[in-house]
Amino acid sequence: MIQTKIYQAGLLKKEDIKTVAALIKSGGLCVLPTETVYGLAGNGLDPSAIEKIYEAKGRPSDNPLILHIAERAMLKNLVREIPAGVSKLMDEFWPGPLTLVFKKSDLVPKEATGGLDSVAIRMPSHPVMQKIIKEANVPLAAPSANLSGKPSSTRFSHVFKDLNGKIEAMIDGGESTLGIESTVLDISSLPWTILRPGFVTQAMIENVVGHPILKSNPLSPLETPKSPGMKYRHYQPQGMLHAILGQISSVVPYIHQTQSPSKGVICTQEWAHHFKTLHLRTIGSIHDLNSMTSELYAALRDMDDRDVEDIYLVAHESMGEALLDRIKKASSEWIELP
Ligand code: TXA
Ligand code: MG
Question: CA separation (Å) from 57 to 64, 219, 315?
Answer without folding.
Answer: 13, 24, 29
